[in-house]
Design a protein that fits this description.
- The complex is a heterodimer of chains A (134) and B (137).
- Chain A is of the alpha+beta class and 134 residues long.
- In chain A, strand 1 and strand 2 form a beta hairpin.
- The radius of gyration of chain A is 21 Å and the shape is elongated.
- The model of chain A has no long low-confidence stretch (mean pLDDT 90).
- Chain B is 54% helix and 4% strand.
- Chain B has a two-stranded antiparallel sheet with strand order 1-2.
- With 137 residues, chain B is mainly α.
- In chain B, helix 1 runs antiparallel to helix 2 and helix 1 runs antiparallel to helix 3.
- The two termini of chain B are 21 Å apart.
- About 7% of the residues of chain B have low confidence.
- Chain B contains 3 helices and 2 strands.
- The chains are: A alpha+beta (134), B mainly alpha (137).
- The interface between A and B is large, with 39 and 32 residues.
Chain lengths: 134, 137
């Protein structure tokens, strides 16, 4: 029954989008962390989506294939009083781009909502299918 | 008798099955709106319907063997499923994704309404048949 499979497809997309939202949240939360727990400066994390077949070759779900770290150089901020400043007075700050993260957040939220709508539509159709012959 | 009942309900039954499959394809497109290199897919409903009613599978699942060691696939697998086509790209995107959310949402709503219409039709057919069986009592 292909309508039931819509729950799997939309559900996989919802969990992938919420993982994306999760990375956005941790990027924004760490936008000013000069040192992370590993002793290195925090690097922005991004999810990479890929298509995964769901029981049926025609049903394409989504999974998070990997979480990559942004390899661009950290922002160097001049702050000689900072305990982590180097000999020139510069502190390495995370390479988090707040604008990029906000756009990512909005996009993830909208995509999540679309999938919720999809799932609700499939539920309505299934419930109506159950009333055949009544 | 049951054969006649099957024939009587076949048209809407086939259309509901195809609509459900198409709904699943459109849900996949919406789910993969942000997946890089995903290409939006759909079926041509009218030709799929004609083929399903004619009783022939559009897709031949037979594999081409180019070497003796290749496995021969089971041609019966996938028979009866309509041929999926890729959407024509109106506005390309940098990540190679061809999902246009407006088109997909529109088609999804349209397909859902047509599915519901099919349900109404088949319910009415069943009511008619019951009325005939009970003789209007």
């Amino acid at each position: 029954m292909s309508l039931f499979n819509i729950f799997n497809v939309s559900g996989s997309a919802m969990s992938a989008q919420s993982q994306r939202l999760n990375t956005v949240a941790s990027n924004l939360a760490n936008a000013d962390s000069a040192a992370s727990s590993t002793g290195q400066v925090y690097r922005a994390k991004q999810v990479v989506f890929s298509t995964v077949p769901m029981n049926d070759p025609e049903a394409a779900g989504v999974k998070v294939q990997q979480v990559v770290e942004d390899q661009s150089a950290p922002k160097m901020v001049y702050d000689p009083k900072h305990p982590l400043a180097d000999e020139n007075g510069y502190v390495a700050m995370p390479n988090v781009n707040a604008v990029e993260e906000m756009v990512n957040m909005l996009s993830a939220t909208r995509a999540y909502q679309s999938n919720v709508d999809t799932m609700n539509a499939a539920k309505t159709l299934l419930l109506k299918t159950l009333t055949i012959g009544q | 008798m049951t054969g006649k009942l099957d024939d009587y309900l076949r048209f809407h039954e086939t259309s509901l099955a195809l609509r459900a499959q198409r709904q699943q394809l459109l849900a996949s497109n919406i789910a993969n709106a942000d997946t890089p290199n995903y290409k939006a897919r759909d079926i041509d409903f009218s030709s799929a319907m004609q083929n399903a009613l004619a009783g022939n599978a559009q897709v031949s699942a037979a594999l081409v063997n180019t070497a003796a060691s290749h496995l021969s696939g089971d041609p019966a697998v996938g028979a009866g499923s309509p041929q999926t086509l890729y959407r024509t790209v109106q506005q390309g995107s940098v990540d190679g994704n061809s999902v246009d959310m407006d088109v997909e949402r529109n088609q999804f709503a349209d397909n859902a309404i047509r599915y519901e219409a099919g349900l109404t039709m088949i319910s009415a057919q069943i009511k008619n048949m019951l009325a005939a069986i009970q003789g209007g009592q």
